[in-house]
Amino acid sequence: MTEQRHPLQQVRADAGAAYTCDFAISKHVSPLDIVPMIERDRTVMTARPGFMRKFIPLRIDPASGDLFSGGRYLFRTAQDARQYQTWLWHDFVLDGSRSSIGRSS
Questions:
Q1: 41: Cβ–Cβ under 8 A, 6 or more apart, which residues?
Q2: DSSP 13-71
Q3: What is the DSSP letter of 80?
Q4: The pTM is what?
Q5: Which of 7, 35, 81, 83 is the most exposed place for a label (fewest CB within 10 A)?
Q6: What is the pLDDT along the chain (105 residues), one digit of tens a residue?
Q7: Which domains are present in the chain?
């Protein structure tokens, strides 16, 4: 018999660094489009050097109904995480334009 891991059980990751970002999702984006958008981005983002794991928080503000998301990215080294941030801020292009994911307003 194989023991099933509870979804909220901690998982050990030998990451040396992390990069995190949070952002609002436009009210003009259909909730049905969010998962395909995440999957499309995942294939590009996870190919970065030193990438180990990505966690995606989603939150709905109960007062306004606004949707928020972000990313929790684990990397092997701090240098990998810094290079990821530089790439995300300056070089990551989505649908022909530079993405604002992970950048301060």
A1: 94, 101
A2: ---SEEEEEEEEEPTTS-HHHHHHHHHHHHHHHTTSTTEEEEE--EEE-TTT--EEEEE
A3: H
A4: 0.71
A5: 7
A6: 455 565 655 656 688 999 998 888 888 888 788 888 888 888 888 889 999 988 888 888 999 888 888 889 999 999 999 999 999 888 888 766 555 555 444
A7: 17-94 (3.30.70.100)
